[in-house]
Amino acid sequence: MRSIALEFKWAIYFTLMMLAWVLAEKFLGFYSTRIAQHNTVTFFVAIPSILLYVLEMRNKREDYYGGPMTYLQGLRSGVVMTLFVAILTPLSQYLIHNYLSPEFFSNMIDYNVSSGKMKLAEAEAYFNLDNFMLESTIFSAVVGIVTAAIVAIFMKRKVVSVS
Predict the structure, then answer these.
(1) 138-147: which pairs have CB atoms within 8 A and are 24 or more residues apart?
(2) Which of 45, 64, 71, 144 is deepest in the core (most CB within 10 A)?
(3) Is the pLDDT of residue 162 over 70?
């Protein structure tokens, strides 16, 4: 169990970071007055997301493996963290859309319809909790695995032999 406790801890940190990111977007107006820029700003959550994968793998390498870590060990660790993030994603989406920003869906529907990007039925079908829970869970799993695969390349470290 100790072998995956670290990944679970970092998945919790990741989920808390996402909740904080949403609150920042909301308070900066990207769910209301600056809603047109929402998609662009949301893209930048990749920066702290990648940083958390780096910190998780570094933590795993140093505290679990004692320094050396192979690419596959790093990848495995990142994939396990991703699995936990994906499991926590529906809960975080529920919290976001019911407590932190309940106006998000109605504002996004209004914006997309009024700007001519979507018809009302399309917007209502897309901007709802069930769809966002499913879509964000799949997205977090796919992007998390890709991120883990890339970060593991840079986090591997060979055993240093003293001769």
Answers:
(1) 140/82, 140/85, 140/86, 140/89, 141/82, 141/83, 141/85, 141/86, 143/49, 144/53, 144/78, 144/79, 144/81, 144/82, 144/85, 144/86, 145/78, 145/79, 145/82, 147/49, 147/50, 147/53, 147/78, 147/82
(2) 144
(3) no
Cα(18)–Cα(88) distance, integer angstroms: 11
What tokens were used for 59? 């933590």
Dihedral sign (CA 88, 90, 91, 93): positive
Residue with tokens 């989406």: 93
This prediction has a pTM of 0.93
136's torsion region: left (phi>0), alpha (psi -120 to 50) or beta? Answer: alpha
Q: Residue 4 contacts by C-beta under 8 Å, 6 or more apart in sequence?
A: 80
What one-character DSSP code corresponds to residue 117? S
Which H or E element spans position 93?
helix 71-95
Cβ proximity of 88 and 141 under 8 Å: no
